Amino acid sequence: MIRSLGIGLLAAAALILQSVWPSGVWAEGTTSDTNKLKQIQQEKQQAEKKVDAAQSELSAAKEKVDQIEKEIGSIDDQIAKHKADLQKSQRELKQKQEKFNTVVARMYQQGQSHYLAFMLNADSFNDFLARFELVRIVLKREKNVLDGYKKAQSDIEKQIKTIEQKKKEKEPYLKKAQAELANYTAVYNQHASKLKQLKHDETVTKEAIERKNRAVRAAKSSGTSYGTGKLAWPQPGGTVTSPFGYRSGRMHEGIDIGNSIGSPILAADNGEVVLTKSDPGGYGYYVVIDHGNGLKTLYAHMYPSTVTVSVGERVRKGQRIASVGNNGRSTGPHLHFETHKNGTPVNPMKYY
């Protein structure tokens, strides 16, 4: 009678704690695979946001580089055009040079007396004036040849300097933009790699949970109704640290009952042990008891050395079957306790 009253008080205390404790307190110290999945999924959401932000910054940096590259490409096109113009101008310069050389040679060979003799051989004054004008035109034309040569040379040199200066002005901006792009690329790759690992961890953890559920469903049931339908508290003195149900959109398929290592774990009702299993990366070592009428209970995170029952063994309600451990994916000693009805995890608290 006293024992039943104590268990009832513990169950009532657990219900009161579940209703008044904030979710952050419930979540503190959770260690089952479902809690690990929640943590992974929360980290994945944060990583996805970081990847999106990094992707936005990366795209902006890439656009900046592309714009400068486009501007430099336009300058290169101008350079190519001016080089083509330069080749054409060089050919013209060569012709001007040859003509210039011819004029200079002729002036040297004939001297100024040639032009004077040409004018003095005029038949009349009008003829003299005509010859004088002709000489003036010839000399002006020859001077234009020399001036044209010098101007063409100067124009080409100015064009080359202007284009080279434009390209030099763009190069520092390009280097800076490329450095920013490299930094954003590194940040993006880092976050993308983290997200990829979290997605992998999420898949692995989901698979671990599903393996556990499949194992519970597959565990042979005798069809016999062993239990009373009213479960005893499986961990006397233990405190619920994480309830059953959705938290932040994530499902926790059992309850976590925290207590010190070695504290007794009791069978919640009469039944038959139908599964004992080691899951080092997840639930540690766990035991499943079939109580009949489609009801099974699961006890997890024990050390195998503390388990005192084996598959096929009949157990009594309140019988010690193991001790609280910290085995598997666990950050603190506790019992992870589940109830499965017809193969589906349900809230254990409905049985108290």
From TrEMBL:
CDD domains: M23_peptidase (cd12797). Residues 30-106, 146-194 form a coiled coil. One of its GO terms (molecular function) is metalloendopeptidase activity. Residues 88-158 form the Peptidoglycan hydrolase PcsB coiled-coil domain. Residues 250-348 form the M23ase beta-sheet core domain. Residues 323-352 are annotated as: Disordered. SUPFAM superfamilies: Duplicated hybrid motif, Tropomyosin. This is Peptidase family M23.
